[in-house]
User: Fold this.
Amino acid sequence: MFIARRCLLGLLFASVAVTARGEMTEINVAQQYGVSFLPLMVMERDKLVEKHAKAEGLGEVKVGWIKVAGPSVMNDGIISGALQFISVGAPSLITLWDKTKDNVQIKGMSAMTTYPLYLNVRNPNVKSIRDFSDKDKIAIPSVKISTQAIMLQMAAAKEYGEQNYAHFDPWTIGLSHPDAMIALINNTAGVDAHFATSPFHEQEMKMAGIRTLTTNYEILGGPATALVIAASTKYREANPRSYKAFLDALKEAIDAINKDKRAAAKVYLEQANDTKNTVDDIYAMISAPDYAYTLMPQKVGKTAEFMYKIGSIKTRPASWKDLFFPEVQNLPGD
Assistant:
């Protein structure tokens, strides 16, 4: 359930506890909606963070799993310290890295999910992205800062020139993926396009008249990390064992999913309370060749380069490795 920003942060601040050894015993993790967050669902169901925390000698650790509609709450929460780990798109990570270089220093722990984002439309007059106008509303998780927002800006820069990167911005509207899907299907509030993730994309494709215009893979020129796990340097340095426990739990969850995707599909249905899809539906989604759960970042550097060029960030990273902590810098990312 979506929780208002001020209320959420207040509740989280009230819950922070610390061990006698100085490490936090309560960890709050924020995520959004969709099958792309399956590793976190596995971690929650199987209490993997708690398992690895005990292995690190931390004893009992309480983990809070927070569902939010977009990155804004997560950005505020990790900067303030109310959240310890967040699952966000590459643009949000890049923005946070740039914004916090002189204070809490937020970086990526690792990538988590590589998958396509689909720009779906129902307006029959929109045959390409050039046909969008002020008569259209494009639903994305958060305006200007979500991955979908940056993808639209990259597409606009390609079509209309770099100086016109914000061409589509006035026609975007911030909605969670479940709400965006309903709005698109029912043509609510003028929403006739949705930059969707799975399983919402597949559900939309079952409706007559809805089709896909483009994907983030097409815009970026290949497979791209859609979700990363981020944490602050401040937290990582003060809680090295808790940090390691979370990373080890994430690795275990990803390994388990990749080993048995049908079992993982069942976990998703249970954890998401999804009654619209079957095990076969979810299995097909996560088994597709362009869908991967992996710690390796892809196309994060290219996204950062674009954001620097248009002025979204002030600092230009030398490579994608500047954006991530050392544990994944040995991977062949980009």
The radius of gyration is 19 Å. The CA atoms of residues 71 and 173 lie 14 Å apart. The longest strand covers residues 106-114.
